[in-house]
Design a protein that fits this description.
8 helices, 15% strand, 2 domains, Rossmann fold, 195 residues, alpha/beta, 5 strands
Length: 195
Amino acid sequence: MARRIRTVIFLLVGLLAAWSDPARAQLQGQVIRIGIGAPLTGGAATFGVEMKNAVELAIEEQNSAGGVLGARLEAVVFDDEASDAKGQAGAGALCQDPAVLAVVGHVNSNVSITASNMYAGCGLAMLTPMSSNPGVTDRGLANVFRLTNREDHKGPRRVPLPAGRQAAGGGGRRPDRLRQGAADLFAGAFYSARI
């Protein structure tokens, strides 16, 4: 995941480099903030902390290489607790900070969907490396980007099994909230295939 985040930071750097000399003069000595919204506590914290660490590592590496056209990158982190309300509140705070250029987040699709509406309203780009619900990008928001595959592409593809075989982990296990969407798509494909 750190490689993906570094790629995104590299692309942002490339975009800024396109403005080159005038941008360098304007950005020299400035701070560009990258928002990070993730669950840092609760059941999905493992994923959120991993994502936060990857973004912070990419920022550290870019700053060690001179920053972006003379500007230093800085992370602005908030714990969305995998909660729509916390995600919306954090997104609102990032929207109020004129130094925030973009946001990397969120882990949970429900939070990404809620927060992305706020980001769209204030013109912040959002990149989610983990949210896989189709609704994250199907709404057509020009500011939302996804690095992972969609649930509707991975859930139904897990259905075809040889006759008489059961999926690993059994069929009666109840998925956690993070996996509920994929489980619903899998079940729909499973029942429509009449396996």
